[in-house]
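Hi W., the IPE complex you wanted:
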Amino acid sequence: MTSSIPLYISQIRNYLHRNPHKSLPRHVSIIMDGNGRWAKRIGKERLYGHREGMNSIRSVVSAAAKLKIPYLTLFAFSTENWQRPRGEVTALFNLLKYFCRKELTNFIKKNIRVIFIGRTDELPQMVRYYLRRTLQATRHCNGITLVIAINYGGQQEIVDAVKKLLKDKAIVENPDLLEEKLLSRYFYAPELPPVDLMIRTSGEYRLSNFLTYQSVYAELHFTPLLWPEFKEKEFLLAVQEYLTRSRRFGALNDYVDR
Ligand code: IPE
Ligand code: IPE
Ligand code: MG
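Structure:
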């Protein structure tokens, strides 16, 4: 299966060569769903599925780096996920810590900068420590940016942005200054471009409070595969399919400069 990867990558490159008006997505986001169901299917605990899901993360990050997709955002933990049993929440945080520790040298080697979005200040101290460490150690990397959404909610991000904005005297005194781009300056990672391609695994057709503001014109890719089944090849196929979409942004011609 691995040997088919260079083929998919060269297919994508050839397609772009033949279709110069097309371009790779600048920002791909993924709702990594279905770990629990995958584990259950093979008679294992949910945690086993979360662990296997980490291999998918590794694989997909590697594919994005090969293609040089500038931003890849992964939904790791939502503001709603606190409603899960305490043991699962702790296990997810432990996995995240482990992942940050284990992958750090790999990120640096592949020149991947890692940043985090979400209400990270509400996370346990040890988790915050690992996030800070990863952020600092990869700060100088200038390849792709891997964005990990943790304790993230799209509505919460908008609320948090409005709170920050209300502290900005210039805007409070002159609200007409406010327009769509300006609001996004108050987001967790203001540099994030709009989402071009949003992928959700596990056959669910919803966005579950992910990147609400940034996804207004995202192309949506839903797949019945469970997250542990989604690897490099599946990611490349999703990008290939994205390239065939006609993005009009409300206009009549096929391609509009953004
Ligand atoms: C996604 O898998 C991972 C997280 C939400 C952290 P799930 O844990 O939601 O797996 P399912 O949807 O129950 O199968
Ligand atoms: C979305 O998955 C959150 C993450 C992938 C982190 P969920 O499994 O929590 O979403 P719902 O409950 O199916 O909407
Ligand atoms: Mg789920």
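The beta strands are 27-31, 71-78, 113-117, 145-152, 197-200, 219-222.

W.
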